[in-house]
Design brief:
This is Multidrug ABC transporter ATP-binding protein. This protein is an alpha/beta fold. The chain has 3 domains: 197 residues, 3-Layer(aba) Sandwich (Rossmann fold), CATH 3.40.50; 72 residues; 183 residues, 3-Layer(aba) Sandwich (Rossmann fold), CATH 3.40.50. Strand 8 and strand 9 form a beta hairpin. Helix 7 packs antiparallel against helix 8 and helix 11 packs across helix 12. The longest helix has 46 residues. The radius of gyration is 28 Å and the shape is globular.
């Protein structure tokens, strides 16, 4: 069954130009469609348009209903099944079946939703959506908060489903679960057949062709323009200085040739202007890391965090030295986020055993998984005591458009908010950085920028990340949390 978009146009009031302009597409609900593009290009907004959450011009028609992930629960403190059933009534046996396919414990549906780990919450919401077999599911970043095992399980699960649209920046995951790609490029939406690697290969070939064409046309325009000027100057001088009829006739012919060359130049310029509109460019990020001369920067001895008699993880011990990047790994629910938060704040609402040796004068910077920032970027920079110019520069390098600078933070996309949090951390002078899943919501170009920056600056860093390739390329040490 088709989903038809005809002359769709949408713009946020704060932006200078439309986010979408004259979009015409026909999508098939049998496709496993991947929606890709840089942060702020409108991936989530497009899903919201399909859900009819925003007013737009043009038409979107489909005989299929849509379901959106992640759906909002009105009472997350309620037991899972009760909270889910309130917002989208589902039969319990179907819900239990989908939960079992996602390898969730049977009694989890009676536990309070808000007490589950991020990965468990993700699986619960996905299980609920796929109970509705008649709807086309729109998945907005479903791999966030899932560990490597959870992402592999989700990929296997999605392969059993008939059709959906998924937004993700996980390249390997997309290769596993999609058969079509809808790319939001810089100037247009382009549909490709195949998985993400196929799309990237075709996109690279197109970019290479356009760069080569641009180089050729630039040289040709320069050559023709110089030739036209030389002929025009010769013709003008001969016509002005000579009374010989033959010479004046030759000058007229030369001027005619000059005009013809000018037309060729104009045609080449027109062709050149059609190129490079969708080529992405990235620059280098900068950070304000400080050197800690006393080592180790952090020492942890037999540390564990517990709720009552239930430890989140077995006791851990490690030392972190200046210039090391230590990855904290472990399955969902093993306490990775709680550990980082405790190291940053020295606060935990359960029991703490073991020892953490860290200087009270140590300057630290934290990127959290969840953040509630609001207001203007200028007010935010002042509140965080970071250099406003450096802050905006890193936001631009991360790909944020200048007109978004005027948008209140609370109205930005998830990816844009993550960039704000990340640029804040990069602008903070710190001896130790604590980053909780730094790649969540950031696009592939940003991920490559971060890797390059870390290799260059070598900050002292403690981070949580589920991407095994990122860990392999960045981490100098790994500590695994085991239940």
């Amino acid at each position: 069954m088709p989903i038809t978009l005809k002359d769709v146009q949408f713009s946020f009031d704060e932006l200078e130009k439309p986010l979408f302009e004259q979009v015409n597409l026909v999508l098939d609900t049998q496709w496993r469609l991947g929606l890709v593009g840089r942060n702020g290009r409108g991936k989530t907004t497009l899903l919201k348009l399909l859900m009819n959450d925003y007013a737009y011009s043009g038409t979107i028609s489909s005989t299929t209903a849509f379901r959106y992930f992640p759906q909002k629960l009105l009472h997350p403190d309620w037991p899972v099944y009760t909270a889910i059933d309130e917002v989208m009534p589902i039969e319990q046996w179907k819900f239990e079946r989908e939960c079992q396919l996602l390898q969730l414990e049977k009694d989890i549906i009676w536990q309070p939703f808000e007490q589950l780990s991020g990965g468990e919450q993700t699986k619960i919401l996905l299980a609920a959506l796929f109970c509705d077999e008649a709807s086309y599911v729109l998945l907005d970043e479903p791999t966030n908060h899932l560990d490597a095992q959870g992402r592999a399980l989700l990929a296997t699960y999605l392969k059993t489903k008939k059709g959906y649209l998924v937004v993700s920046h996980d390249r390997h995951f997309l290769d596993e679960v999609i058969d079509h790609v809808l790319a939001i490029e810089r100037s247009q939406l382009v549909l490709y057949k195949g998985n993400f690697s196929t799309y990237r290969q075709q996109k690279a070939q197109q970019d290479h062709y356009e760069l080569a064409q641009n180089k050729r046309l630039k040289a040709e325009i320069h050559r023709l323009d110089r030739t036209a000027k030389e002929k025009a100057q010769w013709a003008a001088s001969k016509e002005a200085s000579s009374h010989d009829a033959q010479v004046r006739a030759d000058a007229a012919r030369m001027m005619k040739r000059s005009k013809a060359i000018e037309k060729r130049v104009a045609a080449q310029v027109t062709e050149k202007t059609k190129l490079l509109h969708n080529i992405e460019s990235v620059s280098n990020l900068t950070m304000n890391c400080l050197v800690r001369h006393r080592n180790p920067v952090l020492r942890v001895k037999n540390l564990t965090l517990s709720y009552g008699d239930v430890p989140l993880f077995q006791p851990i011990s490690f030392e972190l030295y200046q210039g090391e990047q230590l990855a904290i790994t472990g399955v969902n629910g093993s306490g990775k986020t709680a550990l980082l938060a405790y190291l940053f704040t020295k606060k935990f609402d359960g029991e703490v055993t073991g020892e953490v040796l860290i200087s009270p004068q140590l300057t630290m910077s934290m990127v959290k998984q969840q953040y509630e920032y609001a207001g203007t970027l200028k007010a935010f920079a002042a509140e965080q005591k970071i250099d406003y110019t450096h802050f905006l520069t890193n936001l631009r390098v991360l790909g944020m458009e200048r007109d978004v600078f005027n948008v209140p933070i609370e109205r930005m996309s998830a990816g844009q908010k993550k960039k704000v949090a990340f640029a804040k951390s990069l602008g903070q002078p710190a001896e130790l950085y604590l980053w909780d899943e730094p790649l969540n919501y950031l696009d592939i170009w940003n991920q490559q920028q971060i890797e390059k920056m870390l290799r260059h600056y070598k900050p002292t860093l403690l981070f949580v990340e589920h991407d095994p390739q990122f860990i392999d390329r960045v981490a100098t040490k790994i500590v695994e949390l085991k239940r």
